[in-house]
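Researcher: Structure for this, please.
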Amino acid sequence: MPATDPTDDAAAPTVSGRFAVWARLGGGLALAVLVLLVVSFFRGPATTLQALRDASQTRNTTELARHIDGEALRHSLGRLLLQQTGAALSPDTINDRQLLSQFIVAGALVRPVVETLVTPEGIAALLQGHIGPRPLYAGPPPRIETAWSGLSTVRATVMGAAGDPTLVLVLRRNGLSWRLAGVEAVEASSIKLFPSPPPAASRPDGR
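Model: Predicted structure, token format:
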């Protein structure tokens, strides 16, 4: 019978031990990568908003375009502007033909306005909570509250100086990244246009 090499028995546990160590390291690395991906996914909307803010301040149109869905954002802005225009019309005092002609004119006027809103100045204004061709002020960024609508849509509500909501920015997932894809008006019921008046003091005569 051939003589057995005593080194074979010694090498076997060494190789097995090394494999176990590498397996543990590989498992730990995979878990760390998974945790980083999850954290990055849930921080994605806030990261996108900050990237939009930085790009609009530096007027970096290339970087800005990476974080917006241009077609969807233009469609959303145009629809919102037309809704606001329609609310300003008074159908009780004009006939249907006049109302239609006014909507056609409004649509023609909305298009160039929309194009100004997807510029760095327009995006900066949206991040401040209003629709305008340029930001109102260069102060600290307003508070933004985010709410998830599933795993692919986040609504970021811009809060005004008084703590009231002013505009909703809609972010949609694009793979593992997020882009600004639309805007929504805040529900009228949640907006306080005027502060509540103080209770009237009763007069001595009871009136």
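Researcher: Any notable elements?
Model: The mean pLDDT is 75. Residues 6-58 form the longest helix (53 residues).
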